[in-house]
Write a structure and sequence with these properties.
This protein has about 180 residues and is an alpha+beta fold. The chain has five helices and six strands; from the N terminus they run H-E-E-E-H-H-H-E-E-E-H. It has a six-stranded antiparallel β-sheet with strand order 3-2-1-6-5-4, with helices on both faces. Helix 1 packs antiparallel against helix 5. The longest helix is centred in the first third of the chain and has 18 residues. The two termini are about 20 Å apart. The model has no long low-confidence stretch (mean pLDDT about 90).
Length: about 180
């Protein structure tokens, strides 16, 4: 299974660890397992926030950058099936709770090559995510970083997006993409 895909994990681990250590952001790798967004790797930073997501734990697709990045390549029917009937759970007052609105947002994610969640999953937390592709060019995972924008003024979103998309590209290349 992807949860034990040694190559995906072995390539991703040092990249996520470096992001956590050098940029003080929390870093994550996730896959779809049994229809759910499932964390495979989580690296906590020494930064001011701690996000408790252990490997094997689940997250919402619609409120997380990592989930949006993973769903962006799916067709509308698949996305709606993964989300289930609306309204979707509101984690903050910024969470998109209408499934069709969410599907519309995925078009932008596809175009820009990354996903954002700005206080949609946790108050005060910004995250950026990008998908990882295998040797066939099929998206199989996504990675993301999360940080507290108000508490981490040295984290600039354009730079964070660049780091995440570069890390995802490195992992994809390592898998033969």
């Amino acid at each position: 299974s992807l949860l034990t895909d040694d190559k995906l994990v072995s390539i991703s681990f040092p990249l996520l660890q470096r992001l956590a250590d050098e940029r003080h952001v929390n870093a994550f790798l996730a896959v779809v397992s049994n229809g759910e967004l499932t964390y495979v790797l989580t690296r906590q930073s020494a930064g001011p926030i701690s996000i408790r997501s252990a490997p094997g734990s689940k997250a919402a697709f619609h409120s997380t950058a990592i989930g949006k990045a993973l769903l962006a390549h799916e067709d509308e029917a698949t996305v709606l099936a993964r989300l289930g009937p609306g309204p979707l759970k509101a984690f903050t007052d910024r969470t998109i709770t209408e499934p069709r609105t969410f599907v519309g947002q995925l078009e932008r994610v596809r175009e820009q090559g990354y996903a954002l969640s700005i206080e949609e999953n946790l108050p005060g937390v910004t995250s950026a995510g990008a998908r990882v592709k295998n040797a066939r060019g099929t998206p199989i995972a996504s990675l993301s970083v999360a940080y507290a924008a108000a508490l981490q003024p040295t984290c600039h979103l354009p730079e964070i997006v660049r780091l995440v998309t570069e890390a995802a590209a490195v992992v994809s290349r390592g898998l033969g993409c």
